[in-house]
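Thread: quick sanity check before group meeting

JM: Hey all, I'm pulling together slides for Thursday and realized we never actually wrote out the predicted structure for the chain we discussed last week. Dropping the sequence here so it's in one place. If anyone has concerns about the input, flag it before I start.
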Amino acid sequence: MKFVRYLHEGQTLTGLAIDGSIYPVQADLAEIIRGDKRIEPAQASAEGVKETEVRWLPCIPGGGKIICVGLNYKKHAEEAGLPVPATPILFNKFENALAAHGEEVTLGTAAAEYDYEAELGVVIGRRAKNVSKDEALGYVFGYCSINDLSARDLQNRTSQWMLGKIMDGFCPAGPYLVTADEVGDPNELQISLTRNGELKQNSNTRDMIFRVDEIIAYVSRYMTLEPGDILLTGTPEGVIAGYPPEERDWLKPGDRTAVTIEKLGTLETVFKGE
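JM (edit): ok, ran it. Output follows.
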């Protein structure tokens, strides 16, 4: 199933996306992820609306942890000129960073080197503590497309990356949260990003250094993952920071990006100035 969160006629709703239309369901997405409410396609209202008629909300309800993995694609590590990590490199974002499909994200004057990162998002559906790699995918509720926006000048100001990752709107997520049963193997998905219609990133999640099951098992060893927590699994090669310095054309107001992941749809983001 493809779940969405959206605004329609002033109401915040959860719905199922089916063939270009959205059908509301009588539950909040956070309840569905926790397992407090079970929804089947037949329970969706017959009163659907076209996707073009709604204002999208982030497909993740919020309120949980946002844990990110850096340098998790082999070719991305190569373009960054950095060694392949021996263990996952973790950093975090916060709820203020969540943004919706089609939302305008502000590129403010606090930074100058704004970059994109197409990523697979993994939403946890069951409490996970010290889970094994073999069991890990059983704790996933679903997957979504993410753009892990980054301000490289802030990210590289210190050895801690957080400042360059936590700005408002710097975690667009959506449009859909697709249930794990519909996605299948998350380690075999095509992933790409375009900037103003030009292909910039084009890879497959099989290039990940640490696969989704490994990431869940690793993180759950050190912290308890709760339903609704999201893991960002890293980005492939093709980011702006991977170009030679003289060729880096950082994101600017008026740009548009589109992250497309196989089975998960396309997440569009528009950028504006302050």
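AS: nice. The chain has a mean pLDDT of 95. The first helix runs from residue 29 to 34.
JM: adding both to the slides.
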